[in-house]
Amino acid sequence: MGEPLRDFLPELKKHHGIYVMRQTYEGTCAFLSGYELGSGRYFLKEFHSWLLLRKKGRPELFWPLLVLCEVYRDGSLPDVRYLTPEQDRQMVAVLFELLDESTTA
């Protein structure tokens, strides 16, 4: 079993390129989904619920889209496959900030 996300998150942020081959928002979300599945610890369900409490997106949205709602209005969400390199860096930073905040809440 993998370690809890709150314990692993500092390592992931420090060595992002070692764990995530394509250091994009999409690649980071995919890694986290795989980490959750492999660890058997379902932290993303809790993260989704925590994001919903922030009321920045609609409840039917998947957690990566709710993270995008922190920066974009949910009616104008970009397709993560076509984010610019700057948008990718911004969204990865926002994702890490939210994960930090949610694991200490």
Report on this model:
This protein has 105 residues and is mainly α. It is built from 6 helices and no strands. It has one domain (5-104). The chain has helices spanning 5-14, 16-19, 25-39, 43-53, 63-68, 85-104. Helix 1 packs antiparallel against helix 6.
What oligomeric state is this?
Answer: single chain
**Major sheet:** none
Unreliable runs, pLDDT <50, ≥5 residues?
none
Q: Give the class from helix and strand content and strand pairing.
A: mainly alpha
Shape: globular
Order of helices and strands: HHHHHH
Q: What integer value in Å does the Rg equal?
A: 13 Å
Give the % helix.
Answer: 55-70%
Distance between the termini: 24 Å
User: Total strand count, please?
Assistant: 0
Number of domains: 1
Number of helices: 6
Strand content: under 5%
Provide the residue-averaged pLDDT: 92
